[in-house]
Write a structure and sequence with these properties.
By secondary structure, the protein is α+β, with helices and mostly antiparallel strands. The chain has two domains: about 100 residues, Phosphorylase Kinase, domain 1, CATH 3.30.200.20; about 200 residues, Aminoglycoside 3'-phosphotransferase, Chain: A, domain 2, CATH 3.90.1200. Helices cover about 45% and strands about 15% of the residues. It has nine helices and nine strands. The strands form three sheets. Strands 1-2-3-5-4 form a five-stranded antiparallel sheet, with helices on both faces. Strands 6-9 form a two-stranded antiparallel ribbon. Strand 7 and strand 8 form a beta hairpin. It starts with 11 loop residues before the first helix and ends in a 5-residue tail after the last helix.
């Protein structure tokens, strides 16, 4: 009898055999790329490459995975450049390993996103990324939601994470009090935005360079794991956050980041318009981005280091900088 476990890492060699049988691919090799709340493997068969994602049941239910694959299939059918699911020989998008130590593990095989991560984008790359994001959002506003994914709202991005973080901040009540005050200010501002002035649907909520590849100037989007229902401008906010982190860490100047952001916004609006309310909300939504992921880190053991006080204080320092620099009246 195996001792119960909350999380095991499946053998790449065994997965290669499993994929060979499940998908009837010849000469399969498999390599672990990322171990996390889901595990990511590179699968190769001859000259073809794929990405296999092995989910944790504590992280994503089968219904939530199914909604992710449905959205990605729709994006692909609409011509959006995304890594999309590969259908198995039995006509299913999801396969299952039933004999993992902790129980069943659900898997999805995705097409490979060609190219590499690029952190400082050229004007052409900025424009192509923005247009592709806008195309995602064009589909998102018409996609029929099934209710299985979570919502990004004031509760889930500000107040629920703060409750999770209260104990980790026990030895630094001053920083925790600042976060509470900032969350109240963000909530007060965002709650006044008319719902008629914002577009909603499934947003990616992790639109950072690690989640898209460039092959020359052509971009392919991937990793929709945190896809949830909310204001679509959240995706613009996450890319804006990447630019501000570059400035904070002196990888580019504020002037260069501002220019890149304007190029990005102009190209996005060639496909979809943005309201003034959406654009002004971006810095306030940024606080929810940080709090959401800080709160999420408390929910799975592999992130335990990121929930230690020194990390939390470092993240709080980033938020203080962003609030001071980009919230009107907080200079």
């Amino acid at each position: 009898m195996y001792f119960p476990a909350t999380y095991s890492t499946l053998s790449p060699d065994a997965l290669a055999d499993f994929i060979t049988e499940a998908y009837r691919f010849p000469a399969v090799t498999c390599k672990l790329l990322v171990r996390g709340v889901h595990d990511t493997y590179l699968v190769e068969s001859g000259t073809d490459k794929y990405i296999l994602r092995v989910y944790r049941d504590s992280h994503r239910s089968l219904e939530q995975i199914g909604e992710e694959t449905s959205f990605l299939i729709m994006l692909h059918l609409k011509g959006v450049s995304v890594s999309h699911p590969v259908k198995g020989p039995h006509g299913t998008w999801t396969v299952h390993a039933e004999l993992a130590i902790e129980g069943i593990r659900h898997m999805v095989l995705f097409t490979y996103a060609p190219g590499t991560v690029v952190k400082i984008l050229s004007p052409a790359q900025l424009r192509n990324l923005a247009r592709e994001m806008a195309r995602v959002h064009e589909v998102a506003v018409t996609f029929e939601l099934d209710g299985s994914r979570w919502k990004y709202d004031l509760e889930t991005t500000l107040f629920e994470p703060l409750r999770r973080l209260k104990a980790p901040f026990a030895e630094d009540p001053e920083s925790y009090a600042w976060l509470q005050q900032a969350a109240e200010k963000a909530a007060n501002y965002l709650s006044q935005v008319s719902l008629h002035e914002v577009s909603t649907g499934y947003c990616h909520f992790d639109f950072l360079p690690k989640n898209f590849h460039f092959d020359g100037d052509q971009v392919t989007l991937f990793d929709f794991d945190f896809m949830g229902e909310g204001w679509l401008v959240n995706d613009i906010m996450t890319f804006w956050m990447h630019l501000q982190l570059d400035v904070l860490h002196r990888r580019q100047t504020q002037a260069a980041a501002d220019e890149a952001y304007q190029i990005f916004l102009q190209a996005y609006q060639e496909i979809r318009p943005l309201t003034e309310s959406e654009l002004k909300a971006v810095p306030y939504l940024g606080l929810g981005f940080w709090l959401f992921y800080m709160g999420f880190h408390t929910t799975h053991d592999q992130f335990i280091n990121y929930s230690q006080l020194p990390f939390l204080q470092s993240y709080t320092g980033v938020m203080k900088h962003l609030v001071t620099t980009h919230w009107p009246g907080n200079e």
